[in-house]
Amino acid sequence: MSENTAVSKPDARDDAALQPPVDVIEDTSGITLYADLAGVPKDKLHLHVEGDALTIEGEIDLEMPEGMESSHAEVGLARYRRVFTLSKELDASKVAAEFKNGVLKLSIPKAEHAQPRKVQVKVM
Amino acid sequence: MMYRSLFPRDVLSELDRLQREMQQGLHLSPSIRGIARGGFPAMNVGGTAKSVEIYAFAPGVDPATLDVQIEKGVLTVAGERKLDPPGEKATVHIDERFAGRFRRVVTLPDDIDANAVEAKYRDGVLRISIGRKEDAQARRITIQ
Fold first, then answer.
1. Any coiled-coil ranges, and where (chain A) (predicted)?
2. Which listed residue, A80, A94, B4, B76, has the most CB atoms within 10 A of its CB?
3. A74, A77, A105: which to substitute to probe chain B, counting the most B Cβ within 10 Å?
4. Taking CB atoms and an 8 Å limit, are A26 and B24 in contact across chains?
């Protein structure tokens, strides 16, 4: 998927996508996001940050025998998509991603200036 | 006089979206085992003249812990998904992913050959391919 697909408005049918379940955990160093993207091979996973929007997109690619007819489908679309808004203390340029067995792990560190520091409380 | 539509455009498109979502959600045939939508793992079932194909969407599961059984025409997929526990001082903002033990059961057609089963785990999807019995295949008659 090219960059400009996000800009040009695709028609409604192309726009339909599954919303992958996620876990978002925050600690002092930053935010860790896990997303379940079963059936997406590594080369069909697309991550991009534009401004403060983080987009996770993936296309499901299953091996299917020729002439297979579906009789029951709980996963009825072949695409995942979810967009998150990043807050400004996060450093989007240092996002680290791991993708294994259909699980994406994103580590988004906090910017240097937003790292925790102890605030001295003065007793007057 | 100012004219205001009773149904402005955005409401119509909103209704359209709702309808689309409902159709997606209800596109299922009823079964005695109920509709386990939202169950883990999500399953797709399909078939060809030679085989029955079952896809279980189980991302992040250790394939060694998966237990696949066929008994009396019923396929059972069981296992456990363990997630990394968050650190002590961590805050959980969103918690949607399934964790724990799971078991799902699928009724199989009558003509399957329980000895011709293949299971593969790739990209978080378990694909179970079950062959159909030879004599059942031969019985299929092409109408010209």
1. none
2. A80
3. A74
4. no
pLDDT the model gives residue B23: 59
Q: Which domain holds residue B72?
A: 31-83+100-135
Nearest CA in chain B to A28: B90
Q: What is the CATH number of the domain that holds B69?
A: 2.60.40.790
What residues of chain B lie within 8 A of the CB of A19, using their CB?
A: none
Residue B6 within any structural domain of the chain: no
Task: Tell me the per-residue pLDDT of B56-72, one tens digit each, with 9 for 90 and over.
Answer: 999 999 999 999 999 88
Query: Domain for residue B52, yes or no?
Result: yes
Query: Is B114 near chain A, with CB under 8 Å?
Result: no
Phi, psi of A14 (to 5 degrees): -65, -25
Q: Residue B53: inside a domain, yes or no?
A: yes
Mean pLDDT within B30-44:
67
Q: Which residue shows structure tokens 């019923």?
A: B74
ipTM of predicted assembly, 2 dp = 0.79
Does the CB of B131 have a partner CB in chain A at under 8 Å? no
d(CA B24, CA B9): 23
B17 assigned to some structural domain: no
Residue range B88-111, pLDDT digits in tens? 889 999 999 999 999 999 889 888
Instruction: Identify the structural domains of chain A with CATH numbers, from first to last.
Output: 3-114 (2.60.40.790)
Cis peptide before A10 (omega within 30 of 0): no
A33: nearest CA partner in chain B: B94
Alpha-carbon Rg for chain B, nearest whole angstrom, is 22
Total count of domains within chain B: 1
